[in-house]
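Intended use. Records such as the Nucleotidyltransferase family protein entry shown here are meant for training and evaluating sequence-to-structure methods. They are not intended to support clinical decisions.
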Amino acid sequence: MSVPVAAAAASASAAPRTAMVLAAGLGTRMRPLTDTLPKPLVPVGGKPLLDHVLDRLDGAGVETVVVNVHFFAGKIEAHLAGRSRPRIVVSDERDTLLGTGGGIVKALPLLGDAPFFLVNADTLWIDGVRANLDSLARMFDPARMDALLLLAATSTSVGYAGRGDYLMTADGRLKRRAEREVVPFVYSGVALLSPALFADAPEGAFPLTTLFDRAEAAGRLHGLRLEGVWMHVGTPEAIAAAERAILASAA
C-alpha cells in the first residue's frame, strides 16, 4: 500500500514517546568492575551509564522506557526505582537471557504499535549542534525504513579500534561490512525501529543483527551519521578516555 507524501513526512517528524534500553548483558569485558555491579550502573563522569542514557531519552521527550534486566537484575531495579522521569517499565529476563533480538521481541507488547527508540545501556555520546535523537526522529520514515541506525565515524570515535560495521550509500541505505573489509561507520547502539522489523522474528534468543540483515536485504535498513562524539566504553580502561572527552566538551 502506498503512503501519501504528506503522511510520510508527518510520520517522519513524529518524535517517539517510547523507547527500549538494553540492560540485560553480562558485561564480561568490564570485569572486575562487573564482578559486583551490572555494567549499566558503572559510573562514568560521576553518573551511571544507564542514567546518561535515560537522561538523553527524557530530554528527547520520551515518556516511557522499557528496560530489560538479567544480570544483577535486582540492583538495576533498585536503581531505577529512584527515577521519576521517564516512566520505567521492566522487562524481566532473569530466567532466560534472550539476546538483543529476543529481548526486544519479549518487550514488544510493552512498547506499543508506534516506532520506538532503542538504546544500549552502555552507549555514551556527546551531541553536536543538534541532538542526535531529534535528528533520528526527523529522518525516520516508516514508509521506506524498518530501522534507522545512528552511526559513528570510526575515525573520530573515542575508545574504538575496530574495523567498523557498515558502509552507507548516498541515499542512507546500509551495507554490512564483509569479514575482512574495513568500513567507515560503527553502529553506536542507538536506533529508531519500526515494530514491522520484528514481523516473523525468530523465537527465543537471537541477535538483533539477524533482523538488521533482513532489513538490509530488503533495502529498508538506513543510517544517520552521529553529530558529535561517540564513546565506546567497553572496558575499565576506556572509562578514563570517555571522562576526558566529557570534560573537554564541557570546557
